[in-house]
Inverse folding.
C-alpha cells in the first residue's frame, strides 16, 4: 500500500480520531466543543485535499493550461465550515446557559445535580 | 332490507350508549332508555330469524380498511343464535341491574350502563362478523369496553383484577389470534367465513395444526387452560356484569368464535381427527375436570361459579374439536342452555349479596328460609348446569355425548359423566345448605332481594325449564350449521 | 405558472418567513406567521402530490442550471409522501403551539422560538425534496441546528443539557454523513443523487463505496436514533417544550429514515445495500433489540414524555425491521408506519402537552383521576395509545398488519414474534397511564379542568386521523406501496 502517497488521508484520520477522543473522554463541555471542531476540521481537510488533481493548476481559466484542480470540493467545504462555525457558536451558547443554570461546565458536576440523567 | 338491518343491530346499542350518557342525570329515564334499547335490539335480531330459517344469509359490506380485508357483516345460524341469546338476556339483565345497582348503592351508574351497552354492541358485532378481521375488531372492542366494568369499584383489588383481565385477554388476542388471522390471510388471501372452510388444501397438516392451536388459545375468552385466570379475576365486577358478560356475552363470544373458526375457516373435515384437534381435545378435557376440581374448593360464591363457567366453556370447545354434526350442534345448544343456567346462578349470587351482603358459600347456612325464591331458582339452575332433567342443560350434554360416540371417543362419555358428578358436588351443596343448614341467627324472617332482581331471576329460571320441554327452536338453528 | 414553481416554493416560503418572524418579534404575530406558512406549505405539498399522481415524477432545476451541474429537486412518490407528513404535522401542531408555548416560554423569546420552528421546517422539507447529496447535508444541518435551539427552550434546565448532548451526537452524525457524501463524490464526481446512482453501478465494488456507505449509515443511524445510537433522544424529547416534542417526534426521525431509504434504495441500490453489505442482518438484529429493549425501558418511566420517547425508539425499530425484510411488502410497511406513527405520536404528545399545560407536570404520579377532570384530553391519549398498541380501527393496526404480513411472507418468524412482543409491551406501558388516569386517586391541591380549545382541537384532529386511517387506507397504504415501488426501482 502506498503509505506515503496517501499521507493526507493519514492526517485526516489522525485528526479525526484525536477530535473524537476529546469529545468522548473530556468531561468539560467547552473541551468537548473543541474536540468536535477538530473532528470537523479533519473532514474539511478530506474535502480540500480531494480536490487537488495531480499536476493540476489553480482552477482559474488561463491560456496553455489543460489540467485544473477541482474547485467544487473547496466551495462545498466553505459551506460546511460555515455550518461548523454555527454549530460551535450554538454549542458555546448552550454551555454559557448551562453554566448559568448549574454553575459548572463539568459533566460530572452537572450529572450529580440531576441524578436522573 | 335485512342487509341494512345488520348494521342497525350493531349500531343500536352504541346509540343507546350515547342516549344513556345524555340522560345520565335522570336515572329513571336513563334506565328506561336502556331497557328500550334492549327491546329494540331484540326485535331487530328477531326480524332476521325468518330469513335465516329460510336458508338465506344476508350480508353487508361496511368498509375496506385494507385491500382484500373488508369490514363486513353477515348473519348465519350460529351467529343468529348467539345474537338472540345475548340480546334477550341483555333485557333481563338490565331489569336485574336496576334492582341491583340501586339496592347496592353503586357509584358511576351512568358509566356502567353506557359501557354495558357498548359491550353488547361489540357482542353483536362478533355474532354477525362476516370475516376474521371483523371478528377480531369487535373481539378487541369487547375486551376494552368491559374493562371499565370489571374495574368498576375502583378499589386496588379491582385494579389488580383489571390488569389480569386485560393482560390475559389482550395478550392472547394480540399474541396468538392476530397472528393466526394474518397467517390465514397470507395463506388463502381471504379472511371470510365460508361454509366448508377456506383452509382445506391450502397448506400442510403441520401448519394447520399450529394455526388451530393459535386460534384456540388466541381466543382467550374461551378460557381454555392455562389462559383461564382472567375469568376469576373478572369477578370483582358488579354482579350484573359477571352475570351477563362473564357468564354469557364475553365467554360465549370466545367459544362462539372457536366454533365459527372450526366450522367456517377450517371446515370440520380438516379439524376432525387431526393431531392438533386430538391434542386440543385433551386440553379441553383437562379444563373441564381441572376447573371443576378447583371450583370445589372455592368458598367465594362468584369465584366458584367462575370456575364452573371455565369448565362448562370447554364443553363447547370439546364439541368444536370433535367436529362432527352431532357434536357441533351439541356445542351450539350448550351455548344457549348454559347461558340461561349460569346467568340465573349469578343473578342469585347478586341477589344474596344485595339482600344479606354475603359473598361466601360458608355463610349461606339457613338462607333458604330467608330467601326461598332465590335459593329455589339456584337449585333449578344448578340442575341445568349439571345437565339433569327437567332442565335444558340436558340437551347440550346429550348431543355432545352422541358426538363423542360418533367420533369414536367412548371415553369422553365417561368424562362427561364425571363432570356431571363434579357439577353436582360443587353446586348442589349450596341450596342444600341454604335450605337444611342451621342459621347462626335465631330468628329468620322473609326478606328477599329487590323486586326487579326477582323478576329477572324468575324469567331466566323459567327459561331453564322451558328449554327442557321445547328445545326445538334452538336445535333447529344449531342443526343448520352442518347441513 | 406558479404550479411549475411549487418545488421551490415548498422550501423557500418557510425559509423567507423565518427572518420575517424574527423581525415581527411579537408572540402572536410570529405564531400567526408560522401557522400560515405551515398551512401554505401543506397546500403546496398537497398540490405536489397531486402533480405526482398525474405525471409520476417532477424534476426541478434551480436557476436553469441543468442537472447534474446545478442543484436539482427530484420529487417522486416517496418524498412527496414524506413532505405531506411533515407539513401536515407542522400545521396541526402549530395550532396547538400558541397556548402551549405561551405557557412554557417567556414572551420575549417566543419570536425566536417560531423563527427556529420555521427554520426547522425548512430544513426538514429541504432534506426531503432535494435531489442533491450536498444540499441534503446543508438542509440537515439547518434542521438540526434549529432543533437544538427548540429543545434548549424547554423550561426545565435539563433541557439545556439534553440539547447539548443532542448537539454533540447530532454533529458527529452529520459529520459522518458529510464524510460519506465526500467519499461518494470522490468516487463518482457528482453530487446529484440520480447521477450518482448511475455512476456507482460501475464502481460499487470498491472499498471507497463500502466505506462511504458505512459512514452514511452510521451517521443516519445517529439521526434516526437507531439503537444503540439513540442515547440523545429520550432526554431531548422529554425536556423540550411540549409542542416541540410533538413536532420532532412526528417528523424529524421520519425524515432521517426517509434519507436512509433514499440512499439505500435509490443511490446504492438494493443489491448493494442489502446484498453486498451485511446490512440486512444488522438491521434485523438492531431493530429487534430496539423494539424489545426500548419498549421494556418505557414501562419503567415515570415521566410520560420520556416514556413516549422510548416508545419512539421502539417504533423506529419497527421501521428498521420493515426495511431489513428487503421486500416491497416490508418497505411498504415501513413507509406506512412512518405515516401512522407520526399520527399516533403526534396525538399522544399533544395530549401530554394539554396535561402539561394544566398540571405543569407529566409525571405518572400526578395523573390520578385525570380521566374525569380532563375527559377530552384523556380521550385523545386513549385513542393514541390504542393506536400505538395496534388495535383494529386505528392506524396502528394497519401498520402492524402490513408489517406482520411482510414478515410472514418472508417466513421470518422471529421477527413476527418480536413485533407481537413489542405490541404486548406497548399494552403495558399505555395501560399504566390509562389505569392511573381513570382509577388513580385525585390529588387534592390541583384545580381546573380541560385544556383550552385551541389545544384540544389539534389533538383531536390527530386522534380522529388515527381512526380515519384505521378505516380508510387508500391514501396512506396506497401511496406507501407506490412509494415502495419507486424506491425498489419499479414504476408506480
Amino acid at each position: 500500500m502506498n503509505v506515503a502517497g496517501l499521507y493526507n488521508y493519514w492526517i485526516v484520520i489522525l485528526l479525526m480520531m484525536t477530535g473524537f477522543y476529546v469529545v468522548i473522554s473530556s468531561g468539560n463541555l467547552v473541551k468537548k466543543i473543541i474536540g468536535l471542531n477538530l473532528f470537523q476540521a479533519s473532514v474539511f481537510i478530506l474535502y480540500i485535499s480531494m480536490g487537488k488533481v495531480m499536476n493540476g493548476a489553480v482552477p482559474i481559466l488561463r491560456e496553455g493550461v489543460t489540467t485544473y484542480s477541482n474547485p467544487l470540493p473547496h466551495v462545498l467545504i466553505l459551506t460546511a465550515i460555515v455550518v461548523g462555525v454555527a454549530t460551535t457558536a450554538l454549542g458555546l451558547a448552550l454551555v454559557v446557559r448551562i453554566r448559568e443554570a448549574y454553575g459548572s461546565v463539568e459533566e460530572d458536576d452537572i450529572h450529580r445535580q440531576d441524578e436522573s440523567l | 332490507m335485512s342487509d341494512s338491518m345488520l348494521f342497525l343491530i350493531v349500531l343500536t346499542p352504541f346509540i343507546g350508549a350515547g342516549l344513556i350518557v345524555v340522560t345520565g342525570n335522570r336515572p329513571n329515564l336513563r334506565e328506561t332508555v336502556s331497557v328500550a334499547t334492549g327491546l329494540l335490539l331484540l326485535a331487530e335480531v328477531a326480524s332476521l330469524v325468518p330469513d335465516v330459517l329460510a336458508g338465506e344469509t344476508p350480508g353487508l359490506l361496511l368498509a375496506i380498511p385494507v385491500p382484500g380485508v373488508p369490514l363486513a357483516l353477515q348473519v348465519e345460524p350460529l351467529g343468529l343464535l348467539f345474537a338472540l341469546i345475548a340480546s334477550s338476556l341483555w333485557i333481563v339483565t338490565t331489569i336485574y341491574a336496576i334492582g341491583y345497582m340501586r339496592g347496592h348503592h353503586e357509584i358511576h351508574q351512568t358509566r356502567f350502563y353506557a359501557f354495558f351497552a357498548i359491550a353488547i354492541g361489540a357482542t353483536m358485532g362478533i355474532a354477525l362478523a362476516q370475516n376474521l378481521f371483523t371478528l377480531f375488531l369487535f373481539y378487541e372492542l369487547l375486551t376494552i369496553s368491559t374493562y371499565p366494568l370489571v374495574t368498576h369499584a375502583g378499589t386496588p383489588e379491582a385494579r389488580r383484577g383489571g390488569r389480569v383481565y386485560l393482560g390475559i385477554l389482550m395478550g392472547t388476542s394480540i399474541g396468538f389470534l392476530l397472528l393466526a388471522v394474518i397467517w390465514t390471510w397470507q395463506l388463502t388471501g381471504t379472511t371470510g367465513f365460508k361454509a366448508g372452510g377456506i383452509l382445506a388444501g391450502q397448506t400442510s397438516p403441520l401448519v394447520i395444526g399450529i394455526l388451530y392451536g393459535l386460534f384456540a388459545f388466541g381466543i382467550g375468552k374461551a378460557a381454555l387452560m392455562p389462559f383461564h385466570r382472567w375469568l376469576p379475576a373478572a369477578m370483582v365486577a358488579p354482579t350484573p356484569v359477571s352475570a351477563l358478560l362473564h357468564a354469557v356475552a364475553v365467554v360465549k363470544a370466545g367459544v362462539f368464535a372457536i366454533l365459527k373458526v372450526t366450522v367456517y375457516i377450517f371446515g370440520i373435515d380438516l379439524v376432525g381427527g387431526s393431531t392438533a384437534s386430538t391434542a386440543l381435545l385433551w386440553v379441553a378435557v383437562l379444563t373441564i375436570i381441572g376447573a371443576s376440581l378447583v371450583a370445589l374448593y372455592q368458598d367465594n360464591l362468584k369465584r366458584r361459579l367462575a370456575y364452573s363457567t371455565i369448565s362448562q366453556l370447554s364443553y363447547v370447545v370439546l364439541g368444536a374439536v370433535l367436529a362432527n354434526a352431532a357434536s357441533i350442534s351439541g356445542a351450539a345448544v350448550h351455548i344457549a342452555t348454559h347461558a340461561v343456567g349460569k346467568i340465573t346462578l349469578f343473578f342469585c349470587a347478586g341477589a344474596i349479596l344485595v339482600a344479606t351482603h354475603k359473598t361466601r358459600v360458608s355463610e349461606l347456612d339457613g338462607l333458604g328460609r330467608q330467601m326461598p325464591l332465590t335459593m329455589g331458582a339456584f337449585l333449578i339452575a344448578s340442575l341445568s348446569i349439571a345437565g339433569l332433567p327437567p332442565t335444558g342443560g340436558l340437551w347440550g350434554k346429550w348431543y355432545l355425548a352422541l358426538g363423542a360416540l360418533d367420533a369414536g371417543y367412548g371415553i369422553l362419555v365417561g368424562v362427561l359423566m364425571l363432570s356431571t358428578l363434579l357439577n353436582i358436588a360443587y353446586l348442589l351443596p349450596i341450596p342444600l345448605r341454604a335450605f337444611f343448614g342451621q342459621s347462626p341467627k335465631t330468628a329468620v324472617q322473609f326478606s328477599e332481594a329487590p323486586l326487579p332482581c326477582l323478576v329477572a331471576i324468575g324469567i331466566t329460571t323459567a327459561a331453564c325449564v322451558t328449554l327442557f320441554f321445547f328445545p326445538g327452536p334452538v336445535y333447529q338453528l344449531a342443526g343448520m350449521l352442518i347441513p | 405558472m406558479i404550479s411549475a414553481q411549487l418545488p421551490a416554493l415548498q422550501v423557500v416560503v418557510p425559509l423567507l418567513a423565518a427572518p420575517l418572524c424574527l423581525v415581527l418579534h411579537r408572540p402572536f404575530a410570529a405564531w400567526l406567521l408560522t401557522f400560515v406558512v405551515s398551512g401554505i406549505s401543506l397546500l403546496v405539498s398537497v398540490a405536489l402530490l397531486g402533480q405526482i399522481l398525474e405525471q409520476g415524477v417532477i424534476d426541478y432545476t434551480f436557476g436553469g442550471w441543468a442537472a447534474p451541474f446545478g442543484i436539482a429537486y427530484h420529487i417522486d412518490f416517496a418524498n412527496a409522501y414524506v413532505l405531506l407528513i411533515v407539513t401536515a404535522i407542522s400545521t396541526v401542531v402549530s395550532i396547538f403551539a400558541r397556548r402551549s408555548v405561551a405557557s412554557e416560554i417567556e414572551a420575549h423569546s417566543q419570536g425566536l422560538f417560531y423563527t427556529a420552528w420555521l427554520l426547522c421546517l425548512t430544513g426538514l422539507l429541504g432534506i426531503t425534496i432535494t435531489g442533491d447529496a450536498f444540499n441534503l447535508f446543508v438542509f440537515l444541518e439547518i434542521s438540526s441546528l434549529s432543533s437544538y435551539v427548540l429543545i434548549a427552550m424547554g423550561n426545565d434546565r435539563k433541557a439545556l443539557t439534553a440539547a447539548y448532548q443532542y448537539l454533540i451526537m447530532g454533529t458527529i452524525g452529520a459529520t459522518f454523513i458529510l464524510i460519506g457524501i465526500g467519499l461518494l463524490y470522490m468516487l463518482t464526481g457528482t453530487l446529484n443523487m440520480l447521477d450518482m446512482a448511475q455512476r456507482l453501478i460501475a464502481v460499487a465494488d470498491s472499498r471507497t463505496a463500502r466505506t462511504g456507505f458505512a459512514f452514511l449509515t452510521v451517521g443516519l443511524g445517529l439521526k434516526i436514533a437507531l439503537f444503540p445510537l439513540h442515547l440523545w433522544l429520550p432526554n431531548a424529547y422529554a425536556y423540550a417544550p411540549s409542542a416541540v416534542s410533538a413536532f420532532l417526534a412526528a417528523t424529524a426521525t421520519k425524515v432521517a429514515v426517509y434519507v436512509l431509504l433514499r440512499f439505500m434504495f435509490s443511490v446504492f441500490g438494493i443489491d448493494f445495500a442489502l446484498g453486498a453489505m451485511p446490512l440486512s442482518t444488522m438491521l434485523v438484529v438492531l431493530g429487534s433489540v430496539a423494539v424489545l429493549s426500548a419498549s421494556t425501558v418505557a414501562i419503567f418511566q415515570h415521566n410520560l414524555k420520556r416514556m413516549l420517547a422510548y416508545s419512539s425508539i421502539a417504533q423506529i425499530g419497527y421501521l428498521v425491521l420493515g426495511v431489513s425484510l428487503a421486500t416491497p411488502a416490508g418497505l411498504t410497511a415501513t413507509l406506512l408506519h412512518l405515516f401512522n406513527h407520526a399520527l399516533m405520536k403526534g396525538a399522544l404528545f399533544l395530549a401530554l402537552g394539554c396535561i402539561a399545560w394544566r398540571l405543569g407536570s407529566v409525571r405518572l404520579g400526578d395523573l390520578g383521576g385525570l380521566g374525569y377532570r380532563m375527559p377530552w384530553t384523556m380521550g385523545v391519549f386513549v385513542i393514541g395509545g390504542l393506536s400505538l398498541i395496534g388495535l383494529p380501527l386505528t392506524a396502528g393496526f394497519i401498520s402492524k398488519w402490513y408489517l406482520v404480513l411482510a414478515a410472514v411472507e418472508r417466513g421470518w418468524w422471529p421477527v413476527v414474534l418480536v413485533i407481537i412482543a413489542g405490541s404486548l409491551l406497548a399494552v403495558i406501558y399505555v395501560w399504566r397511564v390509562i389505569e392511573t388516569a381513570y382509577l388513580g386517586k385525585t390529588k387534592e391541591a390541583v384545580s381546573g379542568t380541560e385544556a383550552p380549545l385551541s389545544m384540544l382541537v389539534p389533538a383531536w384532529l390527530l386522534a380522529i386521523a388515527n381512526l380515519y386511517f384505521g378505516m380508510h387506507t387508500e391514501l396512506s397504504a396506497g401511496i406507501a406501496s407506490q412509494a415502495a415501488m419507486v424506491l425498489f426501482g419499479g414504476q408506480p
In short: Chain B has one domain: 2-479.
